[in-house]
Automatic annotation (TrEMBL):
GO biological process: cytoskeleton organization; filopodium assembly
GO molecular function: guanyl-nucleotide exchange factor activity; zinc ion binding
Location(s), subcellular: Cell projection; Cytoplasm, Cytoskeleton
Keywords annotated in UniProt: Cell projection, Cytoplasm, Cytoskeleton, Guanine-nucleotide releasing factor, Metal-binding, Phosphoprotein, Repeat, Zinc, Zinc-finger
Primary localization class, coarse: other
A Pfam family hit: RhoGEF
UniProt keyword annotation of Zinc present: yes
Organism: Salmo trutta (Brown trout)
Gene3D superfamilies reported in the protein's UniProt record: Dbl homology (DH) domain (1.20.900.10), Pleckstrin-homology domain (PH domain)/Phosphotyrosine-binding domain (PTB) (2.30.29.30), Zinc/RING finger domain, C3HC4 (zinc finger) (3.30.40.10)
Protein name, entry field: FYVE, RhoGEF and PH domain containing 4a
Domain FYVE-type per the UniProt entry, residue ranges: 416-476
């Protein structure tokens, strides 16, 4: 380190007068002197005092021994102990201010009104418990003692004896903590019941002394104070030498305070949860009944909601609790994030299942009795989910409501672009005469003829809803018309997708027709047949290709798309194109076995290839 004789400024140099060339500083152990050789100087007589004038010049000043700056200015043990004691005093002053606000403002104002008969006096007493006794002890005894001790710290650097006075009064905290849940419940109950009670609290909360915090926030302070004493005292003992006179008192105080803090741990966890519930309560415009001791906050985050009728995605926000999921819509606010609750879904009976969406990866659906939502998680959320949950997969068929839950649970709507025909009568949809409608009971996409039935649905507060003819028969108990025998093509794509050797989107061309995207599927039960569907949820295949005896060609032709291959037999030629060469080779591996009459094996899963479930095949966009 260069000792600061002076600061050189070009050619002009300002002289710096030093009385001593020895710099002393204290360390944790002893004092160390740092000496520097004397630079050129001239002696002067000034007011009878002999003074040495030193000139600071890089060329003239010898270089002293280098010493790390941190060692010169290192904080001593005594300074650290003083700092801890000072922090204890500072936090104690702030704490007493909060206690006074609770005791002399909130409690006093509410008690004054209660004595008029507006609401019971016992309500106020039970809410604030023994806060007056806690306030008296800290404001009239502990705080004055700490202030006095800090004023004479140079001669009496001790904390242990002061904090020992606190230990007999810890029973007051046990009583306050034990009453805390009851206090929160009463506070909420009477805020809803009495307008005058609510008005007094809101008036005080609007004052500057409250710091924009609610009464509940301030009531958390005594619950959290004892662990704060424990933390500061532990830090103090670490810095205190074993032979220090204060060590025994400090250690004794810590043991008693730590025991009290242990008993408060569950209350502290509850208080932290309550603090979060209050924050969410404010974000929801103080309109939702969520501040309850039985409610436990778990997780929150942004999410995308996928519209059932088109491919648009809308930003939404979820709050997950131990007993419900709040599905919210963001609203504009200058004072921080604000949300409006659109739907409240109970956790009981809730299902979370993976879904297929060609346009949006990482989609899943949340199905509850009140409503079913299809959502897209952000990538970071997906990574966390995969780390913590190994069950993030299921066949799309599983998202449908069972017969026992029909009308009692909101269904997941099959998306419009997942079908090309009515899922009941199998007639193709068009924009004019046969448009898409959703059955409100099962979520199927049906035509207007097949949805011309209405029935009350329990999950929708028994409101009348449009349902398909099958759901109408089940819900009303009427005899169901006998189904006609299904044709060879009338097998649902979703029925096969869950147990298929291979499935996914491919581009398809027959003869000289234009290329079009189809959902191709080779089922395990019919391993020698390739089914072609318009969409993954179609109930009827567009066509089938019995693979036995076909020739497989994969040599490129000028008119074909990249990664294409052909199946030919006599004059019949079917052309296909995959998204990539790797995808193409996987299809060919299966088809080349099937055309020989042998049953092909399911190819192993791959992050960038076709898989057996439609929800896992969203990467095949063709």
């Amino acid at each position: 380190m260069q000792l600061p004789y002076g600061l050189g400024r070009g050619e002009g140099r300002e002289p710096l007068v030093l009385r001593n060339t020895t710099l002393k500083h204290r360390t944790a152990g002893d004092c160390v002197s740092v000496h520097a050789p004397s630079p050129p100087q001239e002696s002067l007589e000034r007011d009878g005092t002999r003074t040495s004038r030193l000139y600071a010049s890089p060329q003239l000043v010898p270089q002293p021994t280098d010493i790390p700056l941190s060692s010169v200015f290192q904080e001593t043990n005594e300074q650290k102990l003083h700092k801890i004691a000072n922090e204890l005093l500072k936090t104690e002053r702030a704490y007493v201010t909060r206690l006074n606000l609770l005791d002399q403002v909130f409690c006093a104002k509410l008690m004054e009104e209660a004595l008029k008969g507006t609401f019971p006096v016992d309500v106020v007493k039970n809410i604030f418990s023994n806060i007056s006794s806690i306030n008296t002890f800290h404001s009239q005894f502990l705080l004055p003692d700490l202030e006095k001790r800090m004023g004479e710290w140079e001669s009496t650097p001790r904390l242990g004896d002061i904090l020992q006075k606190l230990t007999p009064f810890l029973k007051m905290y046990a009583e306050y903590v034990k009453n805390f849940d009851k206090a929160m419940e009463l506070l909420k109950q009477w805020t809803d019941r009495s307008l005058q009670f609510k008005a007094i609290i809101q008036d005080i909360q609007s004052q500057e002394a409250c710091g924009c915090l609610t009464l509940q926030h301030h009531m958390l302070e005594p619950v959290q104070r004892v662990p704060r004493y424990e933390m500061l005292l532990k830090d103090y003992l670490k810095k205190l030498p074993q032979d220090d006179p204060d060590h025994q008192d400090a250690e004794k105080s810590l043991n008693i305070i730590a025991m009290a803090a242990t008993h408060s741990n569950s209350a502290i966890r509850k208080s932290e949860n309550l603090k979060k519930l209050l924050e969410i309560y404010e974000m929801l415009g103080e309109e939702e009944d969520i501040v309850n001791a039985s409610n436990e906050f778990i997780k929150e985050g942004h999410i995308l909601k996928l519209a059932a009728r088109n491919t648009s995605a809308m930003e939404r926000y979820l709050f997950l609790f131990n007993n419900m999921l709040l599905y919210c819509v963001p609203k504009f606010s200058l004072g921080g994030p604000k949300y409006t609750v659109r739907t409240r879904i109970g956790i009981e009976g809730m299902k979370v299942l993976g879904t297929t969406n060609e346009d949006y990866p990482h989609t899943f659906q949340v199905s509850g009795k009140e409503r079913t939502l299809e959502l897209q998680a952000f990538r970071k959320t997906i990574e966390i989910f995969h780390q913590k949950n190994e069950t993030f997969k299921s066949a799309s068929k599983d998202v449908l409501v069972s017969t026992a839950e029909l009308g009692k649970r909101a269904p997941r709507w099959i998306r419009d672009n997942e079908v090309t025909m009515c899922m009941k009568c199998k007639e193709s949809f068009n924009a004019l005469t046969r448009r898409r409608h959703h059955c409100r009971a099962c979520g199927y996409v049906v035509c207007w003829k097949c949805s011309d039935n209405k029935v009350a649905l329990e999950y929708d507060s028994n409101k009348i809803n449009k349902v398909c003819k099958d759901c109408y028969s089940i819900l009303t108990g009427e005899e169901k018309a006998e189904d006609k025998k299904k044709g060879i093509l009338e097998i649902e794509a979703a029925q096969f997708s869950g147990s298929s050797i291979m499935c996914g989107f491919l581009q398809y061309c027959e003869k000289n027709k234009p290329w079009g995207k189809v959902w191709c599927l080779i089922p395990e039960k019919e391993a020698l047949v390739l089914y072609l569907y318009g969409a993954p949820q179609d109930v009827k295949a567009q066509s089938t290709i019995p693979l036995l005896g076909y020739s497989v060609e994969d040599s490129p032709r000028p008119a074909d798309l990249p990664a294409s291959f052909r199946l030919s037999q006599s004059k019949s030629v079917h052309s296909f194109a995959a998204e990539s060469d790797e995808l193409k080779q996987r299809w060919l591996k299966v088809i080349r076995v099937a055309v020989t009459g042998e049953v092909p094996e399911c190819p192993p899963p791959n992050d960038a290839t076709v898989l057996t479930h439609p929800e896992q095949a969203s990467i095949q966009t063709g």
